[in-house]
Design goal:
- The structure holds 2 protein chains of 2 kinds.
- Chain A is about 60% helix and about 10% strand.
- By secondary structure, chain A is α+β, with helices and mostly antiparallel strands.
- Chain A has 2 domains: about 5-70 and about 425-465, no CATH class; about 70-425, no CATH class.
- In chain A, strands 5-6-7-8 form a 4-stranded antiparallel β-sheet. Chain A has a 3-stranded antiparallel β-sheet with strand order 9-10-11. Chain A has a two-stranded antiparallel sheet with strand order 1-4.
- Chain A is rod-shaped.
- Chain A starts with a helix and ends with a helix.
- The mean pLDDT of chain A is about 90.
- Chain B is an alpha+beta fold.
- Chain B has 9 helices and 17 strands.
- In chain B, strands 8, 9, 10, 11, 12 and 13 form a 6-stranded antiparallel β-sheet that branches. Chain B has a 3-stranded mixed β-sheet with strand order 16-7-17, with no helix packed on it.
- In chain B, helix 3 (about 105-125) runs antiparallel to helix 5 (about 190-205) and helix 5 (about 190-205) packs antiparallel against helix 7 (about 365-415).
- The chains are: A alpha+beta, B alpha+beta.
- The interface between A and B is large, with 58 and 56 residues.
Chain lengths: ~475, ~450
């Protein structure tokens, strides 16, 4: 027991409080940093010494600076990020998909107008105006279908671009995680905690999970292992990457996985979750289905109209040729619905008559063409043309509806988990201010202790004089 | 639960975002006036609205089809109306000159007017609506009625032009010219143009010959005689009693002259063999100028008839001579019936005595006959006019029904698609105030920290 030891207590206390104030400052400074977990200086009383039959306290010790985290919330947040990434991308893609089909007009309106024009032709089968109107409305219908298909294709291209960007982002993020893994392992091997590296890695991991729906775990040295669909993305300091310049036969980007050892292969089918998974599904699934359906509808339209048209006779008394330019296969048909060149050039070639001997007043084939409106079409599963088209877009609406609901639900879940994480790890400025005052007072008191000890020394020295 | 500034600001941002989304959606509804702006707003409603709109389009088209048919129907009605008046006028004219007191000049004048009526009807039968000849069937690009070598020919076809008046029903808009004006395919059909042309010819005195058809029953019980004893030559006169005594049976046939006056012809038959007859034709003396009153005046040389055992006519064994009523007392043109226009047929009714059992007269030369044909033509045209009237009526009824259908569909679609304006505005106001409230509370919650109170 000596004045010196009191001084030493004061010195240690000053140091501890200063560290606490610094940590509080660090917390305050990062109160708005995404992914930051507040840190706490763990103060403990120093081991007492046994002097003169009593244990005498030896002041304060700094045991560690720890990061306050709710590990469970943290893990949940990771997996929910994958779900949100998936449902958000899906909801966005489907939303764009539904905007391709306006709720009024569009293909349906054009189809209606085409049949109306045919009906007008039936009213006046010899009329030049009516004939021109039929070709014009038919071309308008074709344009409308082609435009819709083009919009669908460019939607696919946009999604494809998203996929490419996401992969590029992964190529940036994955090495960073590997790098942080290394730093954390090195730092923590010495017994210290690599708080800020962990926070930073957590943010990056969230991003990877959001993009790919990957699963993560931590090995005993604190390094993250990230895998998706059996592919290793990051393991310790090793990391994979993605090539973004390989195209599949449809002209869209393949997801080419390059393993840490440099071997590469197409992993498009292996990523089914996260933002990329949803985008792949939308590009190759939902949107592609609509494109295929539209092609099928277009081919059915062309074939049905042409078949009936061929049964009739034109104004010259010749058997009807192709009304629409024929399309060979369903694939790509929607882009090529237009009036056959010969008919476009000479509307007299529209076969409105059912007999070459009943010109020009015979309107029976025109009426038969009008009748196609309510005829069932085998190529559309026995539905009428109109209903075939409605069936095509009918599912889009309900898909969007449920995708939106799912996205909102996932987001609510995520918000709740974020709140839980924030509740543990977030920085409350008021709290930190109170800590600051607390530590400041302790610091002041410790300074006073120095002065008091000093005074005590002085007194002792004065005694000797 | 620990709450941090971050928690609050996240919550505030989430809340504001949500309130703003609601506000934007409400605003979209208010500005577009539509409840459904995207497929997902109401997937089921969108599909129903699509269907209803397609239905409305179709109904509008059906109405347009009917509107298009109406002028054709109206014009057909007008033409048939004119045809009825024309035929009625022709009938009046024929009646007015049907007695002897009218001079040939008056009859010529009537003929001229009937000619004009015929020409007018012909022109109207070639009426066009919208460049289409409405009585030509499908071949409506050229006039369906043209003047041919022997009357007016129909060069159209039987095409029925139909328009769609509902998904399942069509309305025929045109009448087939050959049916209306020529009676083709119509039971008891009458040629309107032919009747008028023949009437004109009768009035002008250029009528074609009459024709007769007589059916004779062969009675095997009747004994064959020697035939007629009186002299056989045109112009020979004899007392009716003497002739009747020589004949086994007789009949009276009425023919008309071009004044429309009736003349009785007595056809007397005398059996000369098992199935052979002689016959003679006489006019009454008061019909023939200069004949001895009371006598019958022979108007054709004696003819002979032979029948096969089964009763059928044996043309080879028969001689049928011409009948000519010349020098008519009323000054009308001669009535000539060529032998070729007289047809005999036989029949064997064992239990009935030999007699003429049926007779037909086609007295196209007679005004009375022409009047009968005019009546038939009038009936025919009128009945087609009724058809047109019925179609017009049906068009009107369909059109009215379509209007109701369309209004109903529009109403239904509006209920599905259109925003309830009052609800939309009140929603908008509600979301707006919610948004403002969120903003204000955010402003108040975020501001104060301990820092505000430390200094």
């Amino acid at each position: 027991m000596s004045i010196l030891s009191t001084l030493s207590i004061a010195a240690q206390a000053l140091k501890a409080q200063q560290l606490a104030i610094q940590t509080t400052g660090h917390n305050l400074a990062n109160s708005a940093t995404p992914g930051y977990s507040r840190q706490r200086v763990d103060l403990v009383s120093a081991a007492p010494t046994f002097e003169g039959g009593v244990f005498v306290g030896q002041g304060v010790d700094v045991e560690a600076i720890t990061r306050v985290v709710d590990r469970f919330a943290e893990a949940e947040l990771l997996s929910q990020n994958g779900d949100v990434g998936y449902s958000e991308a899906q909801s966005q893609a489907l939303n764009s998909l539904q905007e391709v089909f306006p709720v009024t007009g569009g293909i349906n309106g054009a189809l209606s107008e085409f049949f109306s024009a045919l009906s007008d032709l039936a009213n006046n089968p010899a009329g030049t105006t009516e004939r021109i109107a039929v070709t014009a409305k038919a071309n308008a219908l074709g344009d409308s279908i082609a435009l819709t298909r083009q919009n669908l294709t460019s939607l696919q291209q946009n999604i494809d671009q998203d996929i490419q960007n996401s992969l590029a982002r992964l190529n940036v993020v994955l090495p960073q995680i590997a790098d942080l893994n290394q730093k954390i392992a090195l730092g923590e091997a010495t017994g210290a905690s690599a708080n800020d590296f962990r926070d930073k890695r957590q943010v990056l991991l969230q991003e990877v999970v959001q993009l790919t729906g990957a699963t993560t775990r931590e090995d005993e040295s604190g390094q993250s292992i990230v895998t998706v669909g059996g592919l290793l993305l990051v393991g310790g300091d090793r990391y994979a990457s993605f090539q973004t310049d390989n195209l599949n036969p449809a002209g869209f980007h393949e997801v080419t996985y390059v393993a840490p050892d440099g071997s590469a292969f197409d992993a498009t089918g292996l990523i089914s979750k996260g933002k990329i998974g949803a985008a792949l599904q939308a590009r190759d699934g939902q949107v592609q289905d609509v494109v295929d359906g539209l092609d099928q509808f277009a081919k059915a339209l062309v074939d049905t109209v042409n078949a009936q048209h061929a049964l009739g006779f034109d104004l010259n008394g010749d058997a009807g040729g192709d009304f629409f330019a024929p399309v060979a296969a369903a694939a790509g048909a929607a882009a090529n619905v237009k009036v056959a060149d010969a008919v476009a050039a000479d509307p007299r070639l529209i076969a409105a008559a059912a007999s070459a001997d009943a010109l020009p007043g015979d309107n029976r084939n025109a009426l038969a063409l009008v009748g196609l409106r309510s005829a069932s079409v085998a190529a559309l599963g026995g539905q009428t043309l109109e209903n075939g088209f409605l069936a095509l877009i009918g599912t889009v609406g309900s898909q969007v509806d449920s995708a939106q609901a799912r996205f909102e639900f996932q987001q609510d879940l995520l918000s709740q988990t974020q709140a839980r994480r924030e509740s543990a790890s977030g920085v409350n400025v008021d709290e930190e201010m109170i800590h600051l005052i607390q530590f400041q007072r302790a610091f002041e008191a410790s300074s006073l202790l120095v002065r008091t000890s000093d005074a005590m020394y002085q007194s002792l020295l004065d005694m000797v004089k | 639960m620990r709450v941090t500034q971050q928690t609050i600001s996240t919550q505030v941002l989430d809340g504001l975002q949500r309130a703003y989304q609601q506000l934007a959606r409400a605003q979209e509804i208010v500005t577009t006036g539509r409840r459904i702006n995207h497929l997902a707003d109401d997937p089921l409603g969108t599909a129903r609205a699509f269907n209803l709109r397609a239905f409305e389009d179709a109904v509008s088209q059906y109405k347009r089809n009917i509107d298009n048919a109406n002028p054709v129907l109206a014009e057909s009605d007008a033409v048939l109306g004119d045809a009825v008046s024309g035929l009625t006028r022709a009938k009046e004219l024929a009646l007015s000159v049907a007695n002897d007191t009218n001079s040939q000049t008056e009859r010529q004048a009537a003929a001229e007017e009937i000619h004009a009526i015929l020409q007018q009807l012909l022109a109207e039968a070639n009426t066009q609506v919208d460049n289409r000849f409405i009585f030509g069937g499908f071949l409506n690009g050229a006039a369906p009625f043209v003047q041919g070598a022997s009357g007016i020919d129909y060069v159209g076809d039987n095409g029925e032009v139909k328009v769609q008046t509902s998904a399942t029903h069509t309305l025929t808009t045109n009448l087939i010219g050959s049916q209306v004006f020529q009676g083709a395919g119509v039971s008891g059909g009458q040629g309107v143009f032919d009747a008028l042309a023949d009437l004109e010819a009768v009035l002008r005195g250029t009528a074609p010959a009459n024709a007769l058809g007589l059916k004779v029953n062969l009675d095997s019980n009747l004994a064959a005689g020697a035939g007629f004893a009186e002299a056989d030559a045109v112009g020979t006169e004899a007392a009716p009693a003497a002739l009747s005594a020589e004949a086994d049976f007789s009949t009276v046939v009425t023919v008309f002259d071009d004044h429309g006056q009736a003349h009785d012809l007595h056809v007397l038959f005398a059996k000369t063999g098992a199935a052979t007859f002689n016959y003679r034709v006489f006019a009454e003396s008061n019909d023939i100028a200069g004949a001895t009153p009371g006598d019958w005046y022979q108007v054709g040389t004696q003819g002979t008839l032979a029948f096969n055992p089964d009763g059928s006519f044996n043309a080879g064994g028969s001689t049928v001579s011409d009948i000519t009523l010349a020098g008519l007392a009323n000054g009308a043109s001669d009535i000539a019936i060529a032998g070729a226009d007289i047809a005999f047929s036989g029949s064997t009714h064992k239990d009935q005595p030999s007699a003429v059992i049926a007779q037909t007269q086609t007295n196209t030369g007679g005004l009375q006959t022409q009047l009968g044909r005019l009546d038939a033509a009038l009936n025919q045209v009128s009945s087609f006019r009724t058809v047109v009237g019925a179609r017009q009526n049906s068009a009107q009824v369909s059109s009215d029904a379509l209007t109701v259908l369309k209004d109903r569909a529009t109403g239904q679609r509006s209920q599905i698609e259109d925003a309830d304006v009052i609800a939309a505005y009140s929603d908008f106001a509600r979301f707006q105030s919610a948004f403002q409230a969120a903003l204000q509370s955010a402003a108040q919650v975020i501001q104060p920290t301990l820092l505000d109170f430390l200094t």
